[in-house]
Design brief:
The chain is of the alpha+beta class. Helix content is about 20%, strand content about 45%.
Length: about 100
């Protein structure tokens, strides 16, 4: 069974920083690799090359521009279990309508 793994990353341009997210589908109990991160960034439209594997930093290219992308690993448990989420929704009380 595949699970969603949300990655958070920052795109660093010379004059701005953006915080963005991407989505990777992994087998259960599988951890994402640097190559999974790279493919996710490519799927998000960034032409990237791995620059630093330990800090998960990528050099990205756009016509006339080069910028950096860093994967943020501060989210220790950022996988989603849709079955658990759907089950939890069943236990939530609906707001009474007036």
């Amino acid at each position: 069974m595949k699970k969603e793994y949300i990655i958070h990353f920052k795109v660093i341009h010379k004059d701005s920083i953006q915080l963005l997210r991407g989505l990777i589908f992994l087998d259960e109990n599988q951890k994402p690799t640097i190559y999974d991160f790279q493919q996710c960034l490519i799927d998000c439209g960034h032409e990237v090359r791995i620059e630093n594997t330990e800090q998960a930093i990528f050099k990205a290219y756009k016509p006339g521009e080069q910028y950096w992308i860093q994967i943020l690993r501060d989210q220790e448990n950022n996988t989603r279990d849709l079955n658990v989420e759907n089950l939890a929704k069943n236990f939530m009380k609906n707001e009474p309508t007036a």
